[in-house]
Amino acid sequence: MKNQMKVFGALVIASLMFVVSCDKDTDPADRDVFVGTYEGTITFNDSERTITDEDGRVTVTKVGDSYSFIFGSGIPDITGVRFEQGDDNVYVGIGEGFTGIRITASSLNIAVTNGQGTWTADCSR
After folding, report:
1. Which domain of life is it from (predicted)?
2. Are 35 and 61 in contact (CB under 8 A)?
3. Domain count, the chain
4. Residue of 107, 106, 116, 112 lying closest to 93 (CA atoms)
5. How many other CB atoms are found less than 10 A from the CB of residue 16?
6. How buried is residue 36: exposed, middle or buried, by Cβ count under 10 Å (0-12/13-18/19+)?
7. What is the residue range of 115's domain?
8. What pTM, to 2 d.p., does this model score?
9. How far apart are CA 15 and CA 7, in angstroms?
10. How far apart are CA 61 and CA 81, in angstroms?
């Protein structure tokens, strides 16, 4: 019974954290843990293929200072991105190849090119 209460308590806490992190008004920068889905047009191209999805989704996760962008539609993910705050509470990706990522509570814009290919996203939530 004691172990069941511990498991139940852990599930309740995890559920609350998930609900708070998914709030559409929540700015990812304001949380140490964040999960949110942005929807809109996403593309990827490399030397072998071009993928375009006008109804695409990008799930953004943040743990600590590291962001990951999990794309749908068979587009490779972008991981390990760090940000700095710009004007109007817009956060801009820093580091080689990531300066073309801008994120707010309501929008995600990506224009990234590196050795793997080129990603674009014009999404909102």
Report:
1. Bacteria
2. yes
3. 1
4. 112
5. 10
6. buried
7. 2-124
8. 0.75
9. 12
10. 10
